[in-house]
Structure formats: C-alpha cells, structure tokens
Amino acid sequence: MIQDLWLVGIGTGSPGHVTLEGVQALRDAAVILLPLKGEAKDDLRALRQVILEAAGTNAEIRTFTYPVRDPTLPYVERVAAWHDEIARRWIAALHGAPEGPVALLVWGDPALYDSTLRIAGRLQPPPRLRVLPGITAIQALTAAHAIPLNSVNGAVKLTTGRRLRAQGWPVGEETVVVMLDGECSFAGLPAEGLHIWWGAYLGSPAQILRSGPLAEVAQEIIALRQTARAEHGWIMDTYLLRRASADGG
Predict the structure, then answer these.
(1) Cα(18)–Cα(12) distance, integer angstroms
(2) Which residue from 57, 52, 59, 51 is spatially nearest to 16, judged by alpha carbons?
(3) To which H or E segment does residue 11 belong?
(4) Out of 7, 119, 123, 139, which residue is the most buried by the measure of CB atoms under 10 Å away?
(5) pLDDT per position as a tens digit, 211-230
(6) HSE-CB of 79 using CA atoms within 13 angstroms
(7) What is the CA radius of gyration of the chain?
(8) CB-based burial of residue 33 (10 Å sphere; 0-12 exposed, 13-18 middle, 19+ buried)?
(9) CA-to-CA dists, residue 102 to 50, 67, 107, 112, 143, angstroms
C-alpha cells in the first residue's frame, strides 16, 4: 500500500531541469520507483540515474517493467488497460519496500500530457499525492528557439498529433503547440502561411532543432526525425506552429 506518492517532474533531458524542490523530494523519499523500458531506451534510465546521483538520495530504488499496449483494442480501451497494468506493476514492485514516501520521476511535467496522475488515481486506497512540477517540453522548446510562446494578446492551443490529423488546423487559432505526435502530422496541413519551430531530445546533448516556413522545412524535419529515431531507438519531440500573420511579440 502506498500512503504518500510524490510525482517529481524531471524536465526533458537535462538534469538542470529538476527544481530545487524536486531535488529535496528525491532526498526525502524512502523509495524511488523507476521504470524499465527496454535496452533501446537505456539512455532514459541513465539520465534518471544521473539525476538521482546529483540529488544525493539514499532512497531504496525499486524498478518495474513497462507493459506493452495491446494494439488490438480501440484507442481509449487500449490506454485504460495499459494504465491498469502499470498501476498493478507499481504495487508489485513495492511489495516489502520500506515505509515512507514513494517518489516517481516523471518526464517533463506530471500535469501536462502525462498519465502518471491518472494511473495514481487507480490505486486503492488513494495515496496522498504531492506533485512537484518540472520543466515542460513547451518551455524547453521555446527556450531552445528563443521565441515567445504566444503573440501579443494571443491565445495558444495545445493539442496532439492524433487530433491534428483528425481535425486539421484548429479553427480561429494562430499559435498551436503539438505534443505526442509520432506521425509528423504537420505534413498533412496546408503549409501556406505557417511557420514551425520543432525540437527533439530537448535539453539533452542530443538536442536537434529546426525552424522555418512549414513548406520549406517539413520534409527535412521528417527525415531528421526518422534518422534520429533509428540512431537512438526512441525519440521525444514537439513543435510549435504559428500563422505568419500572427504578431510574434
């Protein structure tokens, strides 16, 4: 049974993305739960290890293996079943663990396009949750490109690749940030008047950035993404799209 669960955002690839509050939480935790995602993603585990060493934690480390989603299920059912299984694996991994707060290192920020809070909601009895925000992929992207997220008095739409493919450009929006897009959905948009800022492995030594008019750089980004994924075995990327008529201030 988990009584206290701390979700620590660790940013997008740099140990410096962890806040001082997050570092202290890692020091104060009794147990730290780490996911194993296979050899192809060993560098993700290595980064978590670097963060833990920098924090100087004495917590006991417990690991669990991430399950594979069932591709035969409809999308919503597939994700729900996946979350159920992850929750079960948390509990199994913590069997016999020391009493005290359990910390999970969460890529990016636990509150933004991350399912850890939803998985935690499956635990019974519900633990006391503490969320320590981290640097989001959006912050890392705009900082890397040295651009403002919004135009003057402008709104920003956050969406996913799945929705962009299904619905196209959101009506009435001038700035759109797209996350969780494994299919380069920007390629299906009418490119005229759109500018893209794209980044992968943000904050890490492997960081890749490209920007420009969508019509000019879309195919280059697709090729870069394919090459990088083949080289690393995984990729995390995001991008911002803005209409050329939008004020960049």
Answers:
(1) 10
(2) 51
(3) none
(4) 7
(5) 999 999 999 999 999 999 99
(6) 7
(7) 19
(8) buried
(9) 19, 20, 16, 21, 31
Residue 109's nearest CA partner among 80, 129, 139 is: 139
**Residue found under tokens 């490109």:** 145
Taken as a whole, the chain contains a residue count of 249
Distance CA 104, CA 110 (A): 10
Cα–Cα dist 136/134, whole Å:
6
- Interval 91-114: pLDDT, tens: 999 999 999 999 999 999 999 999
**Global pTM value:** 0.90
Q: Name the residue with tokens 């004495």.
A: 58
Token representation of residue 108: 């990016």
Please classify residue 239 by burial: count the beta carbons closer than 10 Å to its beta carbon, then call 0-12 exposed, 13-18 middle and 19+ buried. buried
